[in-house]
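Re: the 410-residue chain
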Amino acid sequence: MLGVVAGALLLASATAAGAGGAVGVVVASRGTAGCTGFVVESLSAVMSRCIPFDPGAWAAPPTAVASDESVAFDYGPDPLMEGGLPVWLVHPSGSALELDTTQGDNEVSISADSSKLAFLRTPWNTDTRDIYTVNADGSGLRLVASGTVDSLDAPAISPDGRSIAYWCLPNPPPSRGCGPLPDGSYRQSGLMLMNADGTDKRMIVIGPTHVPVGPLEWSPGWPLSWSPNGQWLTTQGLTPSETTQLFAYRTDGSDLFHYLDPRRQVTHLSRAVSVFGEFCGSSSQILYVSDDSRYAYLIDRDGSNRQRTALNEWQTGEPVCVPPAKGGGPPPIVNVMRVTVPAVRTLSYAAARQRLRRAGFHVGTFKRAYSDRIQRGHVIAQYPHAGAHAHRTNKDGPPVKLILSRGPRH
């Protein structure tokens, strides 16, 4: 049954994500600028409009926002129940819908066109943890993934509404764990994709084999954010130096072995314990807030061009970006577990090692032999031969044996 709450929207002449390519964000408001509910503003903190919603004593933070500024969140009258409440959706039409009446639903996500939502359901006094989807009018509630407590987390629906990304930790035995990977195997943890109807589950980033405990505990519950084109996901990660940083991973599976890879690291914060980021306005820029600063920052996906915005997260709460009207989904999966041995004959040892690394291999053993044709320190032969196929199961990849030239025999 849907609970309907009437409400009126104060319309501005242009939305924060409207003409001119301006980027807008939505934040919770307890009366700022006369608005109780949600404020839509620019990155320069200029208010565009108010979306009224009376949460009582607790200002419900927005969890996800669609391109038309529909706001999805979990909400209830008891602030101590934050994170485990029925899912709500405030429409631009001026009405708010309670999409279900189940306490224990949270981590809601919404497609860019606001037609479909995904959320996590953890019913009280049970050991289940499931992912559901529902239409924006409350119809079509559907179970798409099942797990036990802590095994599934942070579902994020793709901008086009056709795929869902989520974190996975293994169910207790006899579960096989998380997956499958392209070769049909399973791992302890990882970043997963599936179709919005729950079919075609596959792992796109292998997570850690050991989950640390303590104040800096790695958690699959760290939020996920899709790029508008559907080709990237950004999320937190705990680095070996025990700082929390943002990382961006490709959704085509080519980053399967690149969890916490420095080449995928976006932020380089010195003392962050928590950092929350999301793609904002484009597929190349990310907006983030962290516990080492009161301001929100905009940064390029490759970690360059960091800029402080006027948004003060300590005053307004965590901002949620308004996505573009049209969004994409993940491209076809790339099978990085089936790799082809590159040709490295005649290359120097350093060049051969670099080429092998780029192709998903590493130098195994090597020996030296005299050669009148190949200069000293360069590759005479390789095993397996160039063009052969190999099965890759880890970041280093399979070994390739090299024979290096000693130069001509004197």
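Confidence is low (pLDDT under 50) at residues 1-21, 79-83.
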